[in-house]
């Protein structure tokens, strides 16, 4: 199992990174690789890479596959000897290994493989011993070169490569995390999820933008995980949504859906940090502030334009004068770009730390005799057992559920900030419920998780619409200083305010009838 970080290097920082790497003994190697897949790209679809690479004077065949978190990769290498004519690719060379068995399942007997793309890279490597508890030896690899698709044809396309890979050779994963944090902070690097093989696949497809990655339910290795296993699985689920979207945005994408899904991922992660903290290991004090800053900054960029897109057609239908409420607004001009926000050192530092958290060795579990007691100290150094963890989750779900109902009854009388807090609390309830669905067997617990989550949707939609109109009202009111035509929108949204609040109250009240899937019979 390979454990590594991969960072993109800004071109302006390459010389500094190379100079820092050369403070130790480095080895220079030219790597010329050819990547293979089936005609229907079934390996790529399963997150696998099969390549033949000339490393200096030797040929090496490698198969890689995604592991169980952002750091883990399954990998098997076969040394094919010194340079000569390129050997034939042969999947059977990986037979008898975990990743080889996975490869064999995808390739029926006789399935032809075709060369998809190639790379030409100059690699500088250095082994570095990281001082500290547990120690670690990390291989640092600076890769500079290119990925090529349709080589030798009029359709040839190339993509530059400028990356730093940090691979744990032995020792504690926290040593790798410490080194990754230090180098990313010193040199302005950003974590990337895009492999060289994926770069080639995008070139082949002439693909500029990939689809945004959405949330998935956490995967728990055990049927009854303890507190730390729950934390790690949930955080890993959040990162699985955040990291690919953040990687694309850091590289320059301004895709609205990627930004939207990254914000959802951040909100889900913040829910996990808050609602699962009592399970024992999460460092809220260090991790949450940069997440809040990134969430708000990305929201400030997206919300204004998004609200206008939603509001303008409705206003035209109502007879509003046609004008651009953002014309003359200098707010966007002064704001950082999405890439600047995601590449910010504090945000990248949190990503690296969280990835390390999911990959760390489990802390020794609390003694079984304490399993019946739910700890009250959120900074408890040891996680709690499975049954106590489930009780704590029930307690948190019930607390959020009852708070939403209580605030829903008086929603119309709440001030604006308190109404906004209700919406955020409802989101936390939804995300926490989604996180823990696999932990509560519906037949055993006598509830229906899917029906419960479905029952939350009308309230989510009502509060979402109400919030959008509140943001629009503030934006058009601000625009009145630049254009008097904005007053029509101010009046229109103000007139709708009371009816919107009433609709929210009614939708929230209906949650009372939702089956609480976490309750025992």
Structure description:
With 521 residues, the chain is α+β, with helices and mostly antiparallel strands. The chain starts with a strand and ends in a 12-residue tail after the last helix. Helix 15 runs antiparallel to helix 16 (486-509). The protein folds into 2 domains: 2-208, Hypothetical Protein Pfu-838710-001 (Beta Barrel), CATH 2.40.320; 249-513. Strands 1-5-4-3-2-6-7-8 form an 8-stranded antiparallel beta barrel, surrounded by 4 helices. It contains 16 helices and 9 strands. A hairpin with a 5-residue loop joins strand 6 and strand 7. The radius of gyration is 26 Å and the shape is globular. 48% of the residues lie in helices and 18% in strands. The protein has helices at residues 14-21, 42-45, 98-106, 173-187, 196-204, 227-250, 256-275, 284-317, 331-334, 338-343, 345-359, 386-409, 416-436, 442-445, 449-479, 486-509, and strands at residues 2-8, 27-37, 48-55, 58-66, 72-82, 114-130, 136-149, 157-171, 190-191.
């Amino acid at each position: 199992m390979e454990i590594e970080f991969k960072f993109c290097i800004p071109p302006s920082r390459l010389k500094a990174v190379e100079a820092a790497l050369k403070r130790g003994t480095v080895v220079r190697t030219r790597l010329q690789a050819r990547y293979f897949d089936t005609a229907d790209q079934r390996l790529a679809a399963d997150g696998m890479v099969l390549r033949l690479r000339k490393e200096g004077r030797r040929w090496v065949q490698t198969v890689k596959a995604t592991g169980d978190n952002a750091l883990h990769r399954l990998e098997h290498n076969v040394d094919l000897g010194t340079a000569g004519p390129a050997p034939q690719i042969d999947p059977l060379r990986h037979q008898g290994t975990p990743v080889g068995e996975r490869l064999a399942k995808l390739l029926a007997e006789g399935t032809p493989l075709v060369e998809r793309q190639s790379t030409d890279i100059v690699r500088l490597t250095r082994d570095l011993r990281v001082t500290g508890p547990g120690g670690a030896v990390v291989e640092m690899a600076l890769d500079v070169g290119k990925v090529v698709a349709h080589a030798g044809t009029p359709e040839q396309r190339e993509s530059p490569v400028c990356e730093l890979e940090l691979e744990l050779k032995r020792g504690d994963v926290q040593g790798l995390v410490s080194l990754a944090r230090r180098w990313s902070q010193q040199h302005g690097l950003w974590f990337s999820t895009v492999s060289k093989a994926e770069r080639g696949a995008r070139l082949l497809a002439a693909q500029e933008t990939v689809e945004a990655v959405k949330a998935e339910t956490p995967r728990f290795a055990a049927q009854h995980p303890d507190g730390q296993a729950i934390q790690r699985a949930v955080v890993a689920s959040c990162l699985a949504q955040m990291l690919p979207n953040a990687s694309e945005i850091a590289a320059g994408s301004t895709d609205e859906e990627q930004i939207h899904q990254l914000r959802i991922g951040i909100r889900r992660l913040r829910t996990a940090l808050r609602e699962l903290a009592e399970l024992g290991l999460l460092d809220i004090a260090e991790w949450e502030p940069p997440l809040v800053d990134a969430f708000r900054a990305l929201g400030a960029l997206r919300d204004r334009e998004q609200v206008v897109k939603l509001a303008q057609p409705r206003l035209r239908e109502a007879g509003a004068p046609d004008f651009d409420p953002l014309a003359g607004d200098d707010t966007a001009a002064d704001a950082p770009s999405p890439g600047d926000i995601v590449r910010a050192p504090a945000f990248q530092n949190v990503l690296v730390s969280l990835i390390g958290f999911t990959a760390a060795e489990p802390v020794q579990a609390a003694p079984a005799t304490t399993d019946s007691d739910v700890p009250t100290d959120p900074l408890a150094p040891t996680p709690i057992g499975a049954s106590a963890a489930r009780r704590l989750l029930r307690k948190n779900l019930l607390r959020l559920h009852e708070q939403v109902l209580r605030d829903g009854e008086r929603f119309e009388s709440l001030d604006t900030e308190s109404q906004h807090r209700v919406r955020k609390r409802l989101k936390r309830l939804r995300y926490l419920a989604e996180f823990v669905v696999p932990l509560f067997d519906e037949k055993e617990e006598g509830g229906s998780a899917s029906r419960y989550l479905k029952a939350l949707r009308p309230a989510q939609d009502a509060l979402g619409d109400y919030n959008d109109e509140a943001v629009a009202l503030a934006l058009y009111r601000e625009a009145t200083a630049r254009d008097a035509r904005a007053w029509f929108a101010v009046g229109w949204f103000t007139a709708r305010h009371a009816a919107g609040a009433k609709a929210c109250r009614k939708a929230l009240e209906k949650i009372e009838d939702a089956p609480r899937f976490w309750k025992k019979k």
